[in-house]
Design goal:
single chain, mainly beta, 7-stranded mixed sheet, 4-stranded antiparallel sheet, 11 strands
Length: 123
């Protein structure tokens, strides 16, 4: 059974940076990061496939970077130029068995989720 554990969240001022980490156990071919704010659906996706191809939601393109260390089974999300609108619970996710390029940016595509790490950006 795949398990995901996020870390690296915290409080930061607008314009600052944070790097989130997600440790996976088990098979994690394609992975994604999503933000969930209270009362809202998961959004702001960034995904990475087993071949390293990445996709980003328009709201984070150019500011956030998703990467992975396959040997360590780690997923990262580097977030720069943070805005107050970026605040929320950040969760990593995977869909077991999916090996194609550019996995979906839709959160419902993913079947396994971590508990999340909180990010608060103050203006």
């Amino acid at each position: 059974q795949v398990q995901l554990v996020e870390s690296g969240g915290g409080s930061v001022q607008a314009g600052g940076s944070l790097r989130l980490s997600c440790l996976g156990s088990g098979s994690t071919n394609c992975m994604g990061w999503f933000r969930q704010a209270p009362g809202k659906e998961r959004e702001g996706g960034a995904t990475i496939a087993s071949d390293g191809s990445t996709s980003y939601a328009d709201s984070v393109k150019g500011r956030f970077t998703i990467s992975k260390d396959t040997a360590e089974n780690m997923l990262y999300r580097q977030m720069n130029s943070l805005k107050s609108a970026d605040s929320g619970m950040y969760c990593c996710a995977t869909r077991v068995g999916f090996v194609a390029s550019h996995p979906s940016l839709g959160s419902t595509f993913y079947t396994t989720w971590g508990q999340g790490t909180q990010v608060t950006v103050s203006s």
